[in-house]
Amino acid sequence: MTDPTLADLGWSQHFADQTDPRDTHPARIAEIRRDRVYLLAPDGPLTLTTANETGAYAVGDWILHDGTRVTRRLTPLTELARRAAGPGAEAQLIAANVDTLGIVSSCNADFNLARIERYLVLASNAGCLPLVILTKADMCDDPQEYVDRARRLSPLITALALNAKDPDDVARLAPWCGPARTLALVGSSGVGKTTLNNRLTARDDATRGIREDDARGRHTTTSRHLHRSVHGGWLIDTPGMRELQLTDVAAGIEAVFDDIETLAGTCKFRDCAHETEPGCAVRAALDAGDLDPARLQRWRKLSREDRQNSESLAQTRNRQKSLARHIDAAQSQRGKPGRSR
Q1: Rounded to the nearest 5 degrees, what angle is found at the Cα of 76, between the Cα atoms of 124 and 252?
Q2: Which among 184, 317, 312 has a CA at the least distance from the CA of 245?
Q3: Which of 18, 38, 256, 330 lies in the 20 to 30 Å Cα band around 275?
Q4: Does 321 reside within a domain?
Q5: Residue pair 276/244 in contact by the 8 Å Cβ criterion
Q6: How far apart are CA 59 and CA 10, in angstroms?
Q7: Cα dihedral sign for 247, 252, 257, 261?
Q8: 222 and 111 within one domain
Q9: CB-based contacts of 128, cutoff 8 Å, min separation 6
């Protein structure tokens, strides 16, 4: 297979505008391991070290390099991130420069509206197109029922059901991973992401079965990779995520729950809690049967989680800035003449 050109890899004017003739060479990150990044470039694949922690980069990123080290990360068009584990609520990068986020679920017990909504918020906040891919359609009596339930979540959604083991069925995904396009697959373990990846990239990664009692699977993919699609574009597969914690995604929540946000904006009081306040448009919609109580609860939960995580993130950043100021002040004092060393 010939080496891809910059255009093949998804290079656009957005990235060209961030460079000048003196800049080093551009490349796209295909994989990250410890202190090394694996790159795709017109001159062939490269493995380089980084000047920063590898956590500052994501698979799919465009970077500049000097042949030995990564010198700069270019601002991405889209950036997918979640709340990292730990008390600081720091963001953990998932992938970058993704055109479409393929939210993979299945037509069985794994289908979960709340989880799909979380991924929709993630996609909307990042600026990606959301595509709900419902696998195991061949094992379900009425896959269209699952498609309709997913579509009702948001007008932003495109949803389809397919058999991940059928090459012709999987070929329906070609428009989202065609030339210069990048599709990322996310979802729980066992929903068929690896099978889809194999069909879309002509790879042969091993797959593992699912538990019959809850339709959940075992982890097959353990790290993120960017692979060439047989349809001319690129595919990013990600490890299964049982829990997706979000932070700093208010814009995404507003877009996905636009119906509730619009109602809330017409309440009599700006600080309406949508409980017992007079003139509450949200309560009125509930009473009239125009708003699903479960959807309202999911909106409340996501909004509360985002506020808490965003506040924790802001506090962590403030502590880090304060510590940096103290360190700078101490170093300045040690450097003054007449003080003991």
Answers
A1: 15
A2: 312
A3: 256
A4: no
A5: no
A6: 13
A7: positive
A8: yes
A9: 78, 80, 98, 99, 100, 101, 184
295 vs 153, 182, 242, 259, 287, CA distance in Å?
9, 31, 21, 10, 14
Q: For residue 15, which amino acid is it?
A: F
DSSP-assigned letters across all residues of 137-202: GGG-S-HHHHHHHHHTT-TT-EEEE--TT-HHHHGGGGGGSSTT-EEEEEE-TTSSHHHHHHHHHT
Regarding whether 190 and 221 lie in a shared domain, the answer is yes
Q: What is the dihedral of CA 160, 163, 166, 169, to 10 degrees?
A: -10
pLDDT band at 308 (very low <50, low <70, confident <90, very high): confident
Give the pTM: 0.83
Q: Which residues of 248-275 are buried (b: 16+ CB within 10 A; e: fewer)?
A: bbeebbbbbbebbeebbeebeeeebebe
Does residue 200 belong to any structural domain of this protein? yes
| Residues in a beta bridge with 282 | none
**324 in any annotated domain:** no
| Number of domains present in the structure of the chain | 3
pLDDT by residue (tens digit) across 12-68? 999 999 998 777 799 999 999 878 899 999 999 999 988 777 788 999 999 999 888
> How many Å separate Cα 280 from the centre of its chain?
34
Q: Are residues 128 and 212 in the same domain?
A: yes
> Which residues are CB-neighbours of 258 under 8 A, at least 6 positions away?
154
Residue 148 belongs to what domain range?
91-237
Judge if 308 and 203 occupy the same domain.
no
Kindly state whether residues 168 and 260 are assigned to the same domain: no
Q: Are strands 234-237 and 79-83 parallel, antiparallel or unpaired?
A: unpaired
- Shared-domain flag, residues 144 and 190: yes
- Residue 187: closest CA among 121, 245, 237: 237
Flag whether 144 is in a domain.
yes
